[in-house]
Amino acid sequence: MGTTPRRDDVADVIPLVRPARWDWVPRTKLFRPPTVADTVLDPDLLDRTARAVDDVPVTTIVATAGAGKSTLASAVVERTGRRAAWLRFDELDDDPASVVELLVRALDPLVEGGCAGSRQLLDTGLPAAADPRRAVGVLVNDLVVAGPPPLLLVLDDLHTVGHAGPVLDYLVANLPPALHLLITARRDPPVPAARLRARGQLHEVRDADLRISPARAATLLNDHLGLGLSPERVREVVATADGWVTGVRLLGTSPEALDDYLDSEILGDETPDLRRFLLDTAVLDVLEPDVCAAVTGRDDATSLLAATRARLGPLVLVADDRGHRPVLRHHDLLRAALRRRLAVEAPSRVPALHRAAAGAVTDPARRVEHLLAAGAGAEAADAVAALAGADFPRPAELHHLETWIRRLPPVEVTARPRLGVLAGFAAVQRGRLAEATALLEPALEGAAAGTARADRVTRWLAARALHVATSDHARLVPILAALEDDPAFTDLSPAARVEHHLSRAYAATFTGDPSAAFARTREAVALAAGSGDDAATEVLARHLSPLLIAHEGGMDLVAEHMARTTARTTAPTPLVRLGLLLQRAYVALLAGRWDEARAAAAEAGDLPERLGGLPYLRATLDWVDAAVALAQGDLVLTEARCRPAAATDLDRELLPLRRALLARTLRRRGRTTELAELARTVSDHDPLSAAAAASVRAQHALAAGDVAAAVEHLSDRPLLLAPFLVPLPLDRALALAAAGRHAEAVARARDMVEIARRWRMPGLLALAGDEARPLLEEVGGPTVTTALAALDGPAGPAPVPVPGGGEVLSGREVEVLRLLADGASNRSVAERLVVSENTVKTHVRHLLTKLGAGSRGEAVALARRHHLL
Fold first, then answer.
1. Alpha carbons within 13 A on the beta-carbon side of 791
2. Residue pair 193/205 in contact by the 8 Å Cβ criterion
3. Is the Cα torsion angle 348, 351, 357, 360 positive or negative in sign?
4. Which residue numbers in the chain have pLDDT < 70?
């Protein structure tokens, strides 16, 4: 504490993320194996499979190991001439976030300018990077926007990533027209094959298609390998191997038979030195000369590798040929057989071989794997902690770290609280809150025992993650606050400190201290402005919400932030641009400038989805549309915005808020049965949910004619400025009026008008729609006049449901569709509606999606067919 800490010792605060500290993707995963000279493919099969690339969106090659799946796929790539990428999976990739990052790595070089949105998503702290389905949406949008030439993506060994089914399902369902997927797997891969098959969108290759015929086997064995076998012997080999290509080569159809072949034909014929070299290097995934030398203790490893390749031919593959010398690897079947033989002959050597490999490999991730295999728990834990670093990892990195942490001895994890924090936060992201708490509590206790700066920051990280998992404000906020008393706090990055202040602001909001919440918010905005740090501005884009500005001066604070950011940033990142549009939308809504609010929300369009979802931002945009629609009587659109298209884990916590406005809509539409079920299912597990539940129960009571119960549900409720919530004091005034308690109702309404005046938020008074008009007119005043003017504003066309589905065209979308039917260009539509061309493009894109159309002309034709025009 007596010395000034060095800046390079300072850790960023979660969940801020920076570029990867290590490249966890081996280049060999992206390398297409070349077709070797002795390949004997069925020409008809090759022709059919190559033609399918242009005819259907997906090809699957499903067959046993060694059947020639990758060989056929590689030949198809060469035959089609398409711009192609190759991606080989293994068991360590079996995580949706890892699969998404690998897809981006593979496709990024194929697209002119790269997949910019996907790269930003993966390299920032966006929560959507942990929601792979939405991250796939960002990648698909990147490809659609780029409009690349026809592409071919080979997903090799896809059977190893069974847990990535939802990601692949979503990718296939939204596959861009330019992209063909060619999948190889040993068993049915996790893609919707039945659906594709029913639609004629799938070409399938199976084991039977890949079986080698006696004629082709004779070419392989005699012409290419020079074995001089008789026709009878060739037929016998083919029959014994059942047409399995590798079995024909190796005279066996199972690992046991391969072991016999190794003993008699390979290991049995080799010199003792080469035999020992093969067995010792079986622990390696890639055969690099220096590493082989360290593992085997031989200085002639390079020559032995050359001898191995010459002797074993197709059993030694090229893993990467982009360096000055090819990097080799054992065929998967050979490596498995060698490892079995090693475990039988010299089991005590295996840990020592892995330890030697750990000391020789340069890739830190591979070093961790070898240390774990060697049983070196303490060293492995130190290596994992070193990879984790002081700041917070990206989602794909977090998956790998979590996988390693789970394989470590528990005592080693307990001794390193940082590892417990990582595993705990990974559990939080997956929604496993009980598991997260069990991991984080010991980490918090362990970090508290240390005095070093790293220990103090780890304790803060544990408290931050526990705060997210448990919302235990009373216990955890003091721990978060203690960091501010540490001299290291001022050395943290501006973005980290902005995140910290906003976290404290939310905690103050939920514990009933709005003044403290606003003070924290003001401090966060000032810090971001003073630092000029883009990362800090992005934190505000995500977290500067209406909840934090429910105070006198809140509107001015956001307006000044928007003006400052716009002036400073000539080319804002997509996230900053979304934040500005979102803030403009809700500020205009609260000010009663509803045309401006809807225009900003429309311009934001699908930016949240392109950035991976961002559920709170999406919910706020939907609220703007829903609030204006409700106030103007568009109950169909209001209900549509209250029912998100798909509720993922990231959206689930926001559903109670949407239900608050949904309940009001159901009451006004007379759907009392649905409203009763909604009231039965609400809960009060946190302040926001409790406020939403009170609103839902009050609406149900009003629908049932129990106005006294409605008043009771809304008694003593604080004013929370959250999406989809009509201010509860105003709601209570309406309930009091319905109960005949007129004087109390007017008094409550007057109190609400005074709050709206001080906060400069006249739009608050209009959020309940025309139901509030009589009370507001009785109170009167300039603030009420502005609110009533918003209610009296011109309404656009009514929303129109699309037949045959759950989609609804908004009034603005109907206006755009009518102008398109008249032949108007985007520029003309923009001029007529007084919006930007980008806003028009967003509306057109939404129209095409909702109508299932591929072009503007088709959209108009479908609209006329369905009598939407």
1. 21
2. no
3. negative
4. 1-24, 124-131, 240-242, 250-270, 312-315, 317-325, 333, 390-396, 429-431, 488, 491, 612-613, 645-654, 793-798, 804-806, 834-835, 866-869
Tell me the backbone φ, ψ of residue 658, rounded to 5 degrees: -60, -35
pTM confidence score: 0.62
Residue 417's H or E segment, with its range, is helix 417-429
> What's the CA gap between 385 and 83, in Å, rounded?
40
CB atoms closer than 10 angstroms to residue 683:
10
Phi, psi (deg, nearest 5) at residue 777: -65, -35
Instruction: Tell me whether strands 316-320 and 83-88 are parallel, antiparallel or unpaired.
Output: unpaired
Residue appearing with tokens 């891969």: 189
Residues paired with 809 in a beta bridge: 800
Our measurement of the distance from residue 497's CA atom to the centroid of its chain's CA atoms, rounded to an integer in Å, reads: 25
Please give the single-letter amino acid code of residue 600: A
What is the β-pairing status of strands 316-320 and 327-330?
antiparallel
Measured in Å, how far apart are the chain's first and last C-alpha atoms? Answer: 72
Residue partners of 539: CB distance under 8 A and separation at least 6: 16, 495, 498, 499, 502, 524, 528
Distances (CA, A) of 830 to 398, 819, 839: 45, 10, 8
| Separation between Cα atoms, residue 104 and residue 444, nearest integer Å | 36
pLDDT tens-place string over residues 760-812: 999 999 988 888 888 999 999 999 999 888 887 655 566 777 776 667 787 77
Identify the residue whose tokens are 């059919």: 48
Angle made by CA atoms 824, 827, 830, in degrees to the nearest 5 = 90
Q: Assess contact for 861 and 819: CB atoms under 8 A.
A: no
The one-letter code for the residue type at 517 is: A
H-type alpha helices, 682-825: 687-703, 707-713, 728-738, 742-759, 763-766, 773-779, 782-791, 811-821
Query: What's the chain's Rg over C-alpha atoms?
Result: 32
Query: Is the C-alpha dihedral spanning 426, 429, 430, 435 positive or negative?
Result: positive
Q: Which residues pair with 801 in a beta bridge?
A: 808
Give CA separation, 176 vs 64, 318, 510, 614, 776, in Å.
30, 32, 44, 23, 52
| 3-class secondary structure, 808 | strand
Q: What is the DSSP letter of 354?
A: H
Whole-number Å distance between alpha carbons of 462 and 442: 9
How many other CB atoms are found less than 10 A from the CB of residue 866? 14
For 651-701, the DSSP string reads: HHTTHHHHHHHHHHHHHHTT-HHHHHHHHHH---SSHHHHHHHHHHHHHHH
540-544 long-range contacts, CB within 8 A, separation 24+: 540/498, 540/502, 540/579, 541/575, 541/576, 541/578, 541/579, 541/580, 541/582, 542/126, 542/575, 542/579, 542/614, 542/616, 542/617, 543/499, 543/502, 544/502, 544/579, 544/583
* Sign of the alpha-carbon dihedral angle for 821, 823, 829, 833: negative
Query: Considering all CA atoms of the chain, what is the largest pairwise distance in Å, rounded to the nearest integer?
Result: 107
Q: What is the pLDDT of residues 509-538, one digit of tens each?
A: 888 888 999 999 999 999 999 988 888 898
**By C-alpha distance, which of 492, 555, 500, 554 is closest to 524?**
500
From 624, 572, 560, select the one nearest 810 (Cα to Cα): 624
Dist. CA 120–CA 101, nearest whole Å: 11
Distance CA 847, CA 258 (A): 59
Residues in a beta bridge with 15: none
H or E segment to which residue 318 belongs: strand 316-320
- Using CA atoms of 696, 698, 702, 708 in order, give the dihedral in degrees to the nearest 10: 160
Q: How many residues are given for the chain?
A: 869
> Any idea which residue has 């417990």 for tokens?
420
